[in-house]
């Protein structure tokens, strides 16, 4: 059973939030995401991004090829706790490819983190493009409720009712 089905059965709302980062016109090996994670984000269960088009604001998005050379680094304080997620791993549709992933996000298991300390590693210096990182999440109050009623076994993928 996938997480969205489980959350639906539990009556827990799921949400999405786009975090927009504009890549500068001047070459930079790292680009700080620079936003503060909204306070209502409690648990992130999916990440995705778009490419090869424009966003709703008319900004040019990175291309699929550029996504292969940009890495997402999530940090919580001085610690990098997820190292180097290549942005093309978060794409659902790749231009010119007949393959489309069934699930619209890459499954992750991330508690709220400090987005303002996280960054994109941009070793090929992609310029003048926009990255829209989409977070698929459960709100903080719902996540707090889930943790009060269920225990999670780190050795097995089961969830046990308390």
Entry keywords:
four-stranded antiparallel β-sheet, globular, 14% helix, mainly beta
How would you spell out the order of helices and strands? HEEEHEEEEEHEE
Give the overall form. Answer: globular
How would a textbook summarize the main sheet?
Answer: 4 strands, antiparallel
Strand content: 35-45%
The quaternary organization reads as single chain
* Overall SS class: mainly beta
Q: What percent of the residues sit in helical stretches (DSSP H or I)? A: 10-25%
Overall domain count: 1
How far is the N terminus from the C terminus? 20 Å
Strand element count? 10
Mean pLDDT score, rounded?
Answer: 85
Please give the order of strands in the largest beta sheet.
Answer: 1-8-3-6
Q: Point out poorly predicted stretches.
A: none
Number of helices: 3
